[in-house]
Every structure is written in structure tokens, then in C-alpha cells.
Amino acid sequence: MDDRRIAAVMVDVAADGTDKPFDYLIPKELVTEVTVGSRVKVPFGPRKRIGYVIDFPARAQIDRLRPILEVMDLTPPLTPELVRLARWMAQVYLCPLITVLQAMVPAVLKGNYRRFLRLGPAFSGEDLLPEAEARLIRLLREREELTLEEAIGLEGVTQPLIRRMVDDGRLVMEERVGDRTTRKRRTWVVPSQPAAILRNEAESLPKNAARQREVLHHFATRPEEIPLQELLADLKAPRSAVDRLVEKGLLRRMEKEEFRDPFGGRSFARTQPLPLTPEQDQAFQSILRPLQAGEHRTLLLHGVTGSGKTEIYLQAITETLNSGRQAIVLVPEISLTPQMVRRFKGRFGDEVAVLHSGLSKGERFDEWRKIRSGDVRVAIGARSAIFAPFPRLGLVVIDEEHESSYKQEEQPRYHAREVARWRCREHGAVLVLGTATPSVESYFWARTGRFEWVTLNERVLGRSFPQVEVVDMREELKEGNRSIFSSPLRESLEACVDRGEQAVLFLNRRGFSTFVLCRECGETVQCPHCDISLTYHRTNQTLRCHYCGYASGVPRECPSCDSSHIRYFGTGTQRVEEELARLMPGLRVIRMDVDTTGRKGAHERLLSAFGEGEADVLLGTQMIAKGLDFPRVTLVGVIAADTMLHLPDFRAAERTFQLLTQVGGRAGRHEKPGRVVVQTYSPEHYSIRLAAGHEAETFYRQECLNRKRHRYPPFCRLFTLLLSHPDRGGLMTAAHRAAQFLMPRLPEGGEVLGPVPAPIPRIKDRYRIQIMIKYEDHTDEPTDLVEAMRQLKAGLKDPELRIGIDREGVSLPFDGYR
């Protein structure tokens, strides 16, 4: 047994051989500061690095230990439970542990981190203080602020001493990352003397001190603290008047930390629980029973569009809060967040924190700190909100659980659903997977008893499903219609607008045209860095690559044969918008895609404008396909239902069925009946035919049969390896060596498919090859094959080679990481 206090630290170093904890000595003065989850600064080689404490081993791996230099936070950013989760994720998703730990903390904490000290509101002078404290306070009076390093450098000043002074209000600590202040502060003014003294002092002031007199009379009648700026604005007084009164000891300034509020200045009308239908109540009781018993349970809430799933979530969260526990709600798209926030803020007020990429880094940091400090009990956000550091988690809701955005496409390549299941097991919490179109995996696990299956088969108030018409675009072409719009869709759109109603048009492509082609030689204009055609954007007359960001002007002649016969093919959202303007002049259109929603708050502004009737048509990509609820929308048009159907992805049919069902569900959700027009060149395909007929059960049975026949999840374990390299020959050699290395380690019945070129063979000047591994074992425990994949990079010994490993996925759109 080692009598030294030792911490195992994962150091933030992106290099081979560092994916392991390093032992450090905990100095005596930091023993009470260091806990599991603490972020610390440690010596690593000749440099100082940030790391995370993950354990306290009984015995050190080496004899000579270097000490921890500094604890970075007063409250550790990670809880012990999140550290355990990170270790599980690193094992299951085959990634370095430090990448998981970093994914769990706000981005603002990952920069060059410094802390500054200032005198706090409880400071009253340095008389009778111990010498070390008096020395620190005198220096702060002279310089106004000190870095933490400067303060600790003073004789007798230690980190525990500073912590005590911060805790009792004598010092204020501010954290800064680079030139960004991570915390927002506001100056308040408070009276230092009783009201009677303030009145006497006001009367004794000279006539030319009228503003000082007004300030004193204000505090004599209302002796409570007030923000300085508000005081100056109300009394129209100069700052100098307050400064004089502070110097005389009549008033006192104090700084208070304020959380940035991304919804500041907005009011949310409070709502009350709605009466549940018998079917809704049955679903609610299925959640309530394990919730009240404190039992872990995973439920698939399979409810048709418009069946009232959100109200069930709200009432389940109310019960969770009443039991003293906390809740996380995940939504797949930032575009859904405004409507969800409105409903959740209306029900739970300031108990809600919002975490998504549309907020500034400072706003996200403050929302995260509200969770960490216990100031809120409900977190809503996209995928990464599953890491909200709640210590008493009672409920996790994943809305639209089938969405691919819950799967992270870069390290760590986790799926939020699996992470949520792990956390709920740890906390004895309930996990609710809500959707109208479950993933095939969730459907299979619910039908075979692994999840509890709860269904909602009727829309609220008995509203009917929209009428769906599938239009065969081949027939339209035969009849001479070469327009983007079929005759039925155009006629339905004109009738909808004439009735004063609204329509949603969906197309899963942004830009004006999908590609630019030479009609002389047949060549498309390609990205010079990726094996993909460039997309034409009419707005700024550019060709863009949506993979590497390359942009160029539109060529007048073909780069291959110098022909001037350049034409635009395919249809993007910009082109649909232009065609609408040509066919129906005066039509008001709001377009929502990546190009129009890049700025902060753009999603909410556009959706609010549409909800308030400022447009007749909402045109967009998949961000408008689900979750949105507008009473006046009675028509949904799907411009091209085949967009994803023929991609090299075993989930193509599933995603097509889900998208058509979801986007169709935006129509007729209120009193007026809805209509859906689906344009396709593959009307006979089962995913389109069954989505149009609202035949979900038939679709899932057929899809499960196809998956079982071809050995895809959920009937096997699937790993996809993507190898990339700047040299094509070096990549081919490495890929064949990798396949040969893995084959002998396959479990019985396993198979290696490939290596073959990736669907996009080159991105960012790196060539790409894909290997797929299938086998029957569903355990998350390490196996010889999993360990072999983990060691693959080191075994191939090529510094230019990158390897990405994806579990249960088929495509890796991004490069692997070093």
C-alpha cells in the first residue's frame, strides 16, 4: 500500500501511446481540492498540460511522481458517474478516453484557461487579518486584479486559502479563455448606512450636489440593492455621483455574476397540463409506474404524427421533478428547439436549461453551469445534451429517436440512445424513446421484449390522417411536363394558397442545381480535392463542395473539352424557390436550409415568421421534416422522394419511409384536413408505397426480413472501418494488410467485406477505402477482434494513415483521426 496520495490523470495530448492514465502526486495543499472528475494542470514532459482525474490508485505505477500543479475549477466539471460513462464509451466506441472526456465539457473550457482574482462584495478591509491575506488584499487594492498564479506566488497564499476567501465572498474569481470572459458580471449598488443617516447626509450636501442628493433619497426610501446601470438610467445621474457617495462610505458597489440568458427579454406564457385521452393516459401510466418505483426501464413510445407525445413528455417530467429528480430531453434538430423551448419554458419556467449549437459559447457555458450548480432541473438540447451533469437523473426523453443526427460522425462516434440507456441504468431512471417512425433496431427490440412497446394509434381529438397522393414523375414527363412541379402538386398548391392556408415543400438538397454538366463530353464539374461534383448556388453565382468547402466561380467553358455547352442539372432548394416565383408570382416563400440558417437565431426567426402567417410556403430540407406544428398547414409537397432511396446505405429504405411519414405528418394537424403530394420516379418501391398508405407495421416487418436475409443490424454486429491516406498506393497496401490482420481474429461466422473504395473515394485530397466487418456477437465486452481493431493503427506503422471505426454504421463521411 502506497502511503502517498496518488491521482490517475488522463492528459490531453493527441499522440499515439498516451491513451492511458498517468500517475501524479497530489500535494498536501490540494488534497481537499482534487476529486474524480477534477480538471487539473500537470507537468507532461517539458510542458504543462490539462488533464482529468479519473481515479485514485492505491499504488503508483512508478516511484518518482511529479505533482499536480493546479486544480482548474472550484467545482469539478465532470461527476464521477460521467467519468465512468466516459470509460465505457472509450471501450465500446474504440476511441481515446480523453476525446470522450473533452466531448462532455463545454467548448469554452478547452482553450488557454486563466483565472483572475478581484476584491469581492464581502471585503471590508485588511485590518486584523493574517499577514498572508492582508498582503493579498493590499496588492489587489493597488492593481484591481491578479492572476491566480500571481496570487499563489505571494508568500503564505495557497489555493485552499483562496478558495475559502472566494467561498465567503471576500474575493471574486473570474475565468477567462483566451480573450473571452467565460462569466458575465454586473455591478450593483447597495446602501452602507441606515435610511436615517442617508437622509441626514442628503440634507447636508451643498446645492451643486443635486444628483448625489437624489441618489441618497432613492436609497433612503428603497434601501435595497439595484444594478448600477439601472440606477443611473432611472435617476439620470452621472456615474461620478455614485463614485463620490461610495468614497464617503454611504454606498457600496458589489459585483454579481449573472448567467447569460439566450431567451432574455422574452416571456413564455405559462401553461397547464392538458387532459389526456384514454390512449395517452395509458402511455403516461406506463412511464409513471417505473418512475415512481425508481426502476430503470426503456420504453419505445410509438405514436403516430399528431398523437400528442409531447404532452405525455411534459406530464412525465412534472412527476420526475415532484420526486426530486431531474430530466433530460433530446431533440434531433436545432430547428425543433424553438418550438420545444416554448412549450417547456411555458410549463417549467426557469427550471429549464437549453443546450444546442445555435447559442453562443458563453450562453452554452452558462446554461451548462446552471445544470452543474443545481439551479435548473430540466435540460433540453441536441445530441450532446445527454452529458448534462445531473446527479439525480430520473427521466430521459429522446424525441424522434430514429433520427440519424443522434449518431455523432466524428470521434467519439457515439449514439445518444445507447449513452442514454447507460446513464438510465446507472441512475435507475426511465428512458422514453418517442417517435412516429422508430428505427428498425428500436422496433425490433420492442417487439422482442428488450424494450417496452407503448403505442399511440390515433391523432388527438380524432383528427384524420392526411390524404396522400403518390405522383409518378415518369408519367408527367411522358405528358410533356418538364417542370419541377407535377400537375397535382401545382394545382394543390394554388388551391391551398387561394383558401388562405399554408403549405410545406420538402426537398433534401440545398443549392440551385445538384451538378453542372457539359453536354458535349458528358463531364461534370468536379471538386479538385474530393471525388464529388460541385453544387451550383445561384445566390452568389458559385460552385461549392459540401464536403471540403471549396468554392469557385461558374465556368463559361467545360474544363475538360472547352465546350461552351454547360448546363445545370438536378434540383436544389434555391431552384425550387425560383421556379415558385416564376409559376406563382407574388407567392410568399420562406426557404430553410443550411445556407439561410447559418446565423444565430435564424431558425427561430424564420419559423416564427411562418407561424405568424408572413409566408404562404415553407420550403426546406430535412430540418423542416419533423416536429413542427403549424395550425394553418394543410398541404405538404415532397419534391423528390427518391433522394436517399438509391444511396449505398443499408438504411436507405428505412430513412426514406421515415422521412416521408414525418414530413407528411406536418399536414392537417389541427381542425382542417391535410393533403400530401409525393413526387417520385420509384412509386413501386415498398418504402414509398407503404409510407403513403400509413402501413408502418407492414414496412417494419418487410425491412426486418430484408435485414435478416442480408445480415445487417439488428441481426448482427457491424463495424465499418474507413482508412484514408494522401497516397493511393500506400492506402491500398495498408487496407489489404488491415484485412489480413483482422480475418484470423473474427468470431465464428464472422466475415470481412472489402477493402473497397468508399462511396466518395477522395475527400480533402485524401484517398479513402472502406472495410466492413459483420459477426453475430452482440456483447459490448472486449473481444479479440475489438482489441485488434483498437491496435490496428499502431500495427500498420504509417504516420500518414488515418483510421476511423464506426459501430453499427455503414458510411463514414469524415476522415478518421490520427
Let me know the average pLDDT: 85
Total count of helical runs of at least 4 residues: 25
Distance between the termini: 38 Å
Radius of gyration: 31 Å
Q: Give the neighbour order of strands across the main sheet.
A: 15-16-14-17-18-13-19
Strand content: 15-25%
User: What structural class do helix, strand and pairing data support?
Assistant: alpha/beta
Structural shape = globular
Helix content: 25-40%
Spans of 5+ residues with little confidence (pLDDT < 50)? 177-181, 810-818
Largest sheet: 7 strands, parallel
Counting DSSP E segments of at least 2 residues, the number of strands comes to 34
What attributes does this structure have?
818 residues, seven-stranded parallel β-sheet, single chain, alpha/beta, 25 helices, six-stranded parallel β-sheet
Walk me through this protein's architecture.
The chain is an alpha/beta fold and 818 residues long. The chain is 32% helix and 23% strand. The protein contains 25 helices and 34 strands. A seven-stranded parallel sheet has the order 15-16-14-17-18-13-19, sandwiched between helices. Helix 20 (652-664) packs parallel to helix 21. The two termini are 38 Å apart.
